[in-house]
Amino acid sequence: MEIRFFLIFFLVVSTLFAKEISSRYEIEVTLFKKVGYADIIFKEDGKNYETTLTVTAVGMAATLLRNRFETFTSRGKIVDGRYVPDIFIKTKEDNKRSRTQTYYFDHHKNEIKLIEEKTKLVNKASFNSSNLCITYRDVNESSREEKIEEQYFKNDSLTIYLNAIKNCNARSREYPLYAIGAHNDENSVLLSYLDKKKDTKINSLQDSDYLYNLNVEPFDKSDTIVDVLIALDSDGTLKEAFMGEVFWIGKITAKRIYHNVIQ
Fold first, then answer.
1. What span, in angstroms and rounded, lies between the C-alpha atoms of 114 and 222?
2. Which residue has the higher pLDDT, 66 or 155?
3. DSSP-assigned beta bridge partners for residue 103
4. Residue 131: is it exposed, middle or buried by C-beta count within 10 angstroms (0-12/13-18/19+)?
5. Rounded to the nearest 10 degrees, how much is the dihedral formed by the CA atoms of 121, 40, 106, 184?
6. Which of 66, 132, 146, 178 is 20 to 30 Å from 208 by CA-CA measure?
7. More confident: 259 or 5
8. Three-state secondary structure along 66-131?
């Protein structure tokens, strides 16, 4: 089970001027019940923004994923009401390894530089000639790679959702998602605006102000496409989300259990 499945739930926030938002979402899966939390911190001052999403596994999921957690951070500017990233950082860690991918955007050159740093805990043997014994110890191995990405995107996988309300609404109902750190040429992602009066499958979310459907094409073309229903409050912040049956693990739900806005 991949924590990245949960990422799509937690990223839509509104564009109110000068604010700070802190929210926590509880994630449940039919098979395992509670599997983790997603925490969002979002800040903006009208000119600049910073947002961080942290997804942490708990319980049985933490055991299966070796206490893995993932962090996504985007920092940049606000231009004409849209969020424009300068830097995007993805970090994935577990008990034995970590990987940090840092993307630097140059929007004038239409260029993105990626620096990827990895560490891995390995058990190495050493021979002591004085007592003819072999000893073992854990050692961290590190690597660093720098390159220019082959394809340029205006958004990262956080700002693509920060800008969603402006790009997907009652006037423009479909919004293909293309972003660094999330896009795959072989898998399309489409966000669709839903009409509460016409769409019967969203009856359980009628008390929400904005409703969307997120369609993510699976990596394995033989798998069934499972859509995500996203419910937003009047200020554009995520209230809850539902994903249908996924493989053998069942339904995935995310519900907000804490929400604080400072303006």
1. 32
2. 155
3. 88, 114
4. exposed
5. 70
6. 178
7. 259
8. CCCEEEEEEEEEEECCEEEEEEEEEEEECCCEEEEEEEEEECCCCEEEEEEEEEEEEEEEEEECCC
Nearest residue to 178 via CA among 165, 187, 168, 169: 187
For tokens 């795959």, what's the residue? 184
CA distance 91 to 52: 11
Residue 239 and residue 25: Cα distance in Å, rounded? Answer: 9
Here the tokens at position 49 are: 């923004």
Comparison of pLDDT for 12 and 107, the residue scoring more: 107
Question: Which tens digits make up the pLDDT trace of 63-107?
Answer: 766 777 889 999 999 998 889 999 999 998 888 889 999 999 999
* pTM listed for this prediction: 0.77
List CB contacts of 138: < 8 A, sequence separation 6 or more: 121, 122, 123, 124
Residues 6+ apart with CB under 8 A from 220: none
Closest CA to 217 of 248, 249, 252, 182: 182
- Name 196's Cβ contacts closer than 8 Å, sequence gap at least 6: 202, 205, 206, 211
Which residues share a beta bridge with 85? Answer: 76
Check: CB of residue 225 under 8 Å from CB of residue 187.
no
